Amino acid sequence: MAAQRGKDLLLKIDDGTGTGTFVTVAGLRARRFALAAANVDVTDADAVGRWRVLLAGAGELKASISGTGVFKDQQSDQLIQQAFFDATIANWQIVVPDLAQITGPFQISGLDYRGDHATELTFEIALESAGPLALVVVA
Description:
Elements: E1 10-14, E2 22-24, E3 28-37, E4 61-70, H1 75-86, E5 89-96, E6 100-115, E7 121-129, E8 134-137
Antiparallel strand pairs: 1-2, 1-5, 3-4, 4-7, 5-6, 6-7, 6-8
């Protein structure tokens, strides 16, 4: 796989119409998508060579998303603000270029706005997965 442009990693929020349409989060300059899996250690005194033994298929899976950008007062900004203030879990989509689309429920865990006197208004957003995610591999 060839190198990918960072700006092509997209974060989208469901537009709330019930049609499965997603709106790209406007103004993002940096994005991060992370997957994590908790281990379940089942090592006992009979472990070969005292090596740790993990239980396959157990433990908690989670995903987190974060982004930083310029506030643009777009449709996505309004959807994000509403989801945060209503403390709702919305469907989000992460597009990893030439690799996959990951879709599922996330809750906003942080929403920060920053405005220095001589610069543009910026924002930071953080999301945590709130259920199973669907992976569609791009061929």
